[in-house]
Amino acid sequence: MSDCERGEETMKEIKCTACERGCTLRADSDLYEITISGNKCPRGKEYALGEYINPTREVTFNVRVRGGSSPVVSAKTAYPIAVTKILPLSRLLLKLSVDAPVAEGQTLFASLLGERIVSTSAVEKEAL
């Protein structure tokens, strides 16, 4: 049973990246309410709430390319994914390779759960 389920308060310190200020935010919760403090702009409160409830990250990768002018293409998640999904997705992408040519913005992988990996650069087919 988590602290929150037992009715105990939980606290988390969060470094805000919503703007250039980089405020140190504090998210406190009890069984019924989450309180955010330390934000100097409205975006900070929204950011801290999201980080407290469901932290997400945009993740970058290198994906192997077969028959390309480069052995790898840079790629990233199409949108931020839950932190809990990063390791399983990384393990899966270690096995991924695509055929050249690869266009910038091309979907390289799409999972049944909705995660999409897109290329952030182009790789031409290797000249013979």
Which helices and strands occur, and which strands form pairs?
Layout: E1 10-15, E2 24-29, E3 34-37, H1 42-53, E4 56-57, E5 60-66, E6 72-77, E7 81-82, H2 86-93, E8 97-99, E9 107-110, E10 116-119
Parallel strand pairs: 5-8
Antiparallel strand pairs: 1-2, 2-3, 4-7, 5-6, 6-10, 9-10
Describe the 3D structure.
By secondary structure, the chain is an alpha+beta fold. The protein has two domains: 10-53, no CATH class; 60-119, CPE0013-like fold, CATH 3.10.530. Helix content is 16%, strand content 34%. It has two helices and ten strands; from the N terminus they run E-E-E-H-E-E-E-E-H-E-E-E. It has a five-stranded mixed beta sheet with strand order 8-5-6-10-9, with no helix packed on it. A three-stranded antiparallel beta sheet has the order 1-2-3, covered by helices on one side. Strands 4-7 form a two-stranded antiparallel sheet. The longest helix has 12 residues, at 42-53. The radius of gyration is 20 Å and the shape is elongated. 17% of the residues are buried. The model is unreliable at 1-7 (pLDDT under 50).
Query: Helix and strand string, N-terminal first?
Result: EEEHEEEEHEEE
Given as residue ranges, the uncertain stretches (5+ residues, pLDDT < 50) are 1-7
Q: What class do helices, strands and sheet pairing give? A: alpha+beta
Number of domains: 2
CATH topology of the largest domain, what is it called? Answer: CPE0013-like fold
The geometry reads as elongated
Specify Rg, calculated over alpha carbons.
Answer: 20 Å
- Figure out the total of helices: 2
- The CATH C-level name of the largest domain is Alpha Beta
C-alpha termini separation = 62 Å
Number of strands: 10
Biggest sheet details: 5 strands, mixed
Proportion of residues in β-strands = 25-35%
Portion of residues within helices: 10-25%
Q: Mean of residue pLDDT? A: 89
The strand line-up of the biggest sheet is: 8-5-6-10-9
CATH superfamily of the largest domain: CPE0013-like
Could you say what the CATH architecture of the largest domain is?
Answer: Roll
